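Lab notebook, bench 4. We co-purified these components, and the gel suggests they stay together. Before we commit to crystallization screens, I want a quick structural picture of the whole thing.
Request: model the full complex, all chains together.
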Amino acid sequence: MAAPVNSVGKTSADRLQANCTSFQKKTRSKLISIPGTRPSVQNGQLLVSTGVTSLDYLLGGGLAVGTVLLIEEDRFDSYSRMILKYFLAEGVVCRHELFVATAQDNPDEILQELPAPILDDVAVPKPVEQPRLTGEPQDTLDAMKIAWRYQNLPKVQSALASSSRFGHYYDVSKTMEAEIRQAAKCHRFYLPDHITPSSAAHRVESYSALLKSLQEVIHREGFDLATPMSKSRNILRVGLHSLGSALWGDDLCCHDKPRHSHALTTFLYGLRALLRSSLLVAVVTLPSHLIQDRALMGNITRLCDNAIALESFKGSERETNPLYKDYHGLLYVRQVPHLNSLARQLPDHKDLAFKLKRKQFTIERLHLPPDLSETVSRVSRGEPVGVASACGSRASGTKNLDF
Amino acid sequence: MFSELNSILNISPDSFTRGEFILVSDRQSDASFLIHHFLSFYLRARCKVCFLGLVQSFCHYSAVSQRLGVSLTQAKEKGQLVFFEGLKECLSVLTPKENNVESEAMNFLRDPTVGLRSLYEFVRSSVIGSGSLEEGAEQWGPSVLLVDDLSVLLSLGVDVGAVLDFSHYCRALVCSQMQGNMVMLVRCNGEEDDDDDGDVVSEVLLKGLTHQCNLSLHVQGLPTGYCKDIHGQMEVCWKTRQGDTPHLQKNLFQYKVYDKGASFFARGTSSAVL
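Here is the predicted assembly.
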């Protein structure tokens, strides 16, 4: 399971939530405090920040240690790569260890592109047009005369953010300085170093080589939960770039009916086994737009815990659509996990859009402006955003019910 | 265990039909909360349970069962529960080391064409158990096999025929021979009417198992879309025999999953609506 926070001693009366621990500790010890993590307020899971505060809010406060976040890449792999870089940069700033695995570019290239942290920015940046984040009713407005039923409703927060700070902000126009980056310990896995692309072993062995390398790092550096807690603990952040693409030796993206379709799913199963038994957090990006088999995407999503999909407007007709002029793309939440509990934290809103500003990557609720034109013409709208479907529970039989 | 579900199914820890195969399935939804229900139900009913937990770690099941009032660690110590943790065993096969012994039951990971024979042998040995009982060992009720879930075996490359064979062998062993119960979870992806691109393999498995089962609980999302207060709908289908004629009885409920349980209600009677 995802590692929970331990409580002091053995007073079971105090341990009301999440009292099963995967820490096999033999002695009582103090509260585990690893830099860069905090316990979740909902269920006591240990959380880390993904580097993007809006995404942290969407995931329920942060990414739980021992889980994996699957990001379905946008068409040109620009924003998913950005989120991966945020994730790794957050690891550097929090002094976690990193493990980067790629098949396409050298991991050093990704590490050199990490955004620079804004370290002197302590206060929450002043929102320009967003409403205040607290839920206090605004008495400055006059009492509503016509829509008085709406008087007591809280103001709509379009930006997803919580009141307490967790995570850092980054300036994407600058890259992280070399001294900060080299202070963090980074393990690299570049596939062509391990397996030559033309060998017969390439097709099925690349994922198992990655799994073995990851397990070796875990054992060597002591991220295993089974090892006795002699020294201080740290988190290993794993970033896997473009899994499932043809460069990993997989033909998922090339064929309609791939022959070794279970190579990636077996790898994800092994990754889940490693995650649940170590202090690991993983972010995996996958070019899902190249995979034709939707059922396979469903299997892959189920083997990951959190799953989001990005769709950028670049290059599509929505780029010039006036409705989407404030945003860079849409974000879909495909799956939320239920960790050590029956219920899961479902998101409030399903229609989310993101935009990448220089100092922040914001995810907001998509607001379409009201159509105040006289004629009922929506020709410029383009195709609709998509059937609002639940993550993990789709609408069944949507054909007959089309409002 | 969920008391409302017990009253729907007309069972209780003291009285339930033996020799039943209960199929829990879902379509683009998550029915694993029903597996947690059945696990705590059969442990409360003092049955000997063999649980194949293939998708989550032991601590996850243990944490949820704690909230439902059953302690898995205690049941394991007393010998009532045999827990097979698929995630832990798979690493010994996927990343083999020289000293470590490979787990026999998961050897299909190395070569999926081998099939699930070793997994069945594991089930057989834990359900039949040791021949001689020690002094003072507690007598448990009928054996129960729970599998969470069967579709992950398809994702790991096992052939659908092998999975159907496995379920048939288990049913012959647990339901017919030992007169116990069996609960299996199957998950589907696509829409029901999809022909071409649909997930043919999962559909074949679901249809095959639906044919074999006595009671089927099918969980789906709401046909009207996403709702935060109603998590989905569940269709209960009983197959009984009245005299010589087989009889099919279906019932549809909506449900909402809470932290400590789930509530089931007739369509349209959710507390959010009324």
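The CA atoms of residues 221 and 232 of chain B lie 4 Å apart. Worth comparing against the SEC data before the next meeting. The domain at 3-129+140-191+200-229 of chain B is CATH 3.40.50.300 (Rossmann fold).
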